[in-house]
Design goal:
Helix content: 25-40%
Distance between the termini: 33 Å
Oligomer: single chain
Order of helices and strands: HEHEHEHHEHEHEHEEHH
Shape: globular
C-alpha cells in the first residue's frame, strides 16, 4: 500500500491501538517509506508499541534500520539455525552476513528503547540447535530468544501429521536440553509458548487481539495465512477499518470462536490442528 493509504488506516485506528506490527509475508525493510510510517504512528501516540520482523539479509539492511533505532520497540530477526543449517533452510541466505548484521544491530540498539529479539521457527531440520541458539543469543548480547512451532496453515504439501513430531522423544529431549541451557544463559529471556498447546479454535487469540491488513487493503483473519483470495472480511480502502471489523462476516467468525468450531480456513493451523 502507498503511504497515504497506510496513514488513512493509522488515522482511523490509532486511539484504539496499544501495539502495531509492521510486518507481513515479505521483508519489512524493503518498504521505502517505513520511516515515514513509524514517525506518523509516533506522532499520534508515542506509547503505541511498534514491532517489525526482518530476515536482516537485504544489502542495505543497516542503512535502513539505523534511522529507526530508538523509534521501533522490537526488531525481531528470523533465524533458522546456525551456520550450514541456516543456509540449508534459508535459501540464498548467508549466515556470515546475518551474524555481521546482528552484531551491528545490537550495537546500534544499545542504550535505546529498541529491543532486539531473535525468532526461530522450529522444524525437523533445525530443532536440535535450539539450545545452541540460546547460547548464540547470549554471545551476541541479544536479550530475547523465541522459539515457535512450524505453522502449516498456509503449507499445502505437508500433512497435519507433521505436528506429531513435537511429541516425539527426539524433540522433547532437545526441548529439555534447551530448558537446562536456560539456567546457563539466565540473561537471555527464552520463550517457547506453543509446543504443548491444547489445540482448538478457542486457543487462537487472533479473532479478538489481532487482525491483518494486506498491502491491497483486504482484511484477513491473521498473518499466518494472509490470502484474501481464500478469505477476507472486506477491503479497508473502500470503507473504514472499524466497519470491516464489525460487519456481519467478522461477527460470524467470532461466533465460531465462541462455539469452538474450527473454520475450514484454519484447519491446518498449529492452534487448531
Amino acid at each position: 500500500m502507498d503511504e497515504n493509504q497506510a496513514k488513512k488506516i493509522i488515522d482511523e485506528l490509532w486511539y484504539y491501538l496499544d501495539s502495531v506490527g509492521l510486518t507481513g509475508m515479505g521483508e519489512t525493510f524493503l518498504y521505502p517509506n517505513i520511516k515515514n510510517i513509524v514517525d506518523y504512528i509516533k506522532s499520534k501516540n508515542e506509547g503505541i508499541i511498534i514491532s517489525v520482523s526482518t530476515n536482516a539479509m537485504i544489502s542495505n539492511f543497516i542503512e535502513q534500520v539505523s534511522s529507526l533505532v530508538g523509534l521501533i520497540d522490537t526488531i525481531q530477526v528470523s533465524i533458522d539455525g546456525l551456520g550450514e543449517v541456516y543456509e540449508s533452510i534459508r535459501k540464498r541466505g548467508k549466515f556470515e552476513l546475518l551474524q555481521s548484521n546482528l552484531e551491528t544491530l545490537v550495537e546500534l540498539c544499545k542504550n535505546t528503547q529498541t529491543t532486539v529479539m531473535m525468532n526461530m521457527v522450529v522444524t525437523q531440520e533445525n530443532y536440535y540447535q535450539m539450545a545452541d541458539l540460546a547460547r548464540f543469543a547470549q554471545k551476541m548480547g541479544i536479550k530475547y530468544m523465541d522459539f515457535t512451532m512450524f505453522n502449516l496453515a498456509a503449507v499445502t504439501q505437508i500433512e497435519k501429521s507433521y505436528y506429531d513430531f513435537y511429541k516425539s522423544v527426539e524433540f522433547l529431549t532437545a526441548l529439555q536440553t534447551l530448558k537446562e541451557t536456560q539456567k546457563q544463559v539466565s540473561e537471555v529471556v527464552v520463550s517457547y509458548n506453543n509446543f504443548d498447546t491444547n489445540r482448538s479454535f478457542q486457543v487462537c487469540p487472533f479473532p479478538w487481539t489481532h487482525f491483518y491488513i494486506c498491502w491491497n487493503g483486504y482484511l484477513t483473519p491473521c498473518c499466518a495465512k494472509p490470502f484474501p483470495k481464500e478469505l477476507h472480511f472486506g477491503n479497508v480502502f473502500g470503507t473504514s477499518v472499524m466497519e470491516v471489523l464489525n460487519n456481519e462476516q467478522y461477527r460470524s467468525w467470532r461466533t465460531l470462536w465462541f462455539k469452538n468450531h474450527t473454520p475450514d480456513f484454519c484447519e491446518k493451523c498449529h492452534f487448531t490442528a
